[in-house]
Amino acid sequence: EYAVHRKPLPEKMKNLEQGIWERKVGLGTWIADRFWRRIQLAYPNLKAGEVSEAEKQYTFARGLCLDKIIWVFFICALGGDIIETFYVHFTAGIWMSRSSVLYGPFSIVWGFGAALLTMLLYRLAKLEDRYIFLGGFFLGGTYEYMCSVISEKVFGTVFWDYSNMPFNIGGRTNLLFCIFWGILALIWVKMIYPPLSRLIEKIPPIAGKIITWVCVALMVCDLALSAFAMMRYVERKDGVPAENAVESFLDEQYPDAFVEFVWPNMKITK
What's the pLDDT tens digit per position in 148-200? Predict the structure, then answer.
């Protein structure tokens, strides 16, 4: 163990050090002064109150914008998958995949539903609760119905059937779930979205932009691969053999057992 003992600086050295420090401070003040003078010359109408407005552009995903909607989609797609997984576990006693894609625990129905409700109900946030509830009631029911139609017409599959429930519409949606959509819309608009929006806006702008579009690119690839694997699964069930390298790859990498594990509730309608 040792210590370094430093002798006091001579008086001349102290004066020299103080002089250098004063020159640094003076130089910094001069540079800052010149900088603000140039800004005032370039923007003569700029007022003190407008500086804070200019700074707002550096806030990531400020207000309702594309970046904000993308983050809402991913957060709710992940959260929806987790909620459904635990719900099935507690009600049925089993762990079941609730993901909409091959890779990652993401429920696309939840993600797009949250994004749609946010965009369409954003302007209703200041209205009375009944208007938000009715908006969610009709929008949610319509959205669920259309998701079922698209899944059946495009892929020849269905993931839910409410035919045994009262007041259902073609088995695709029902009165009870429309009420749930209305309640969910009210909770989302009034309680969940405002703090979530503020949290998203705290993300550093550059990092936020990079993460946003990297995630979008990965999700697009995941969705495309999932769609091809699903269509190939339906073809295999119809006895259609692989006709090219892509279909052979899908058969090898995503066999029936794997597809049925990811989408256990999927039923073929064609």
Answer: 998 888 888 888 889 888 888 989 999 999 999 999 999 999 999 999 999 99
- Reading the block at residue 66, the tokens are 């594309």
Q: What pLDDT is recorded for position 262? A: 94
What span, in angstroms and rounded, lies between the C-alpha atoms of 160 and 173?
9
- Cβ atoms of 234 and 270 within 8 Å: the answer is yes
Answer for the pair 100, 78: CB distance below 8 angstroms, yes or no: no
What is the spatial distance between Cα 140 and Cα 146, in angstroms, rounded to a whole number?
Answer: 10
What is the C-alpha to C-alpha distance for residues 157 and 239, in angstroms, rounded to an integer? 16
- Count Cβ atoms within 10 A of the Cβ of residue 45 and give its class: 0-12 exposed, 13-18 middle, 19 or more buried: exposed
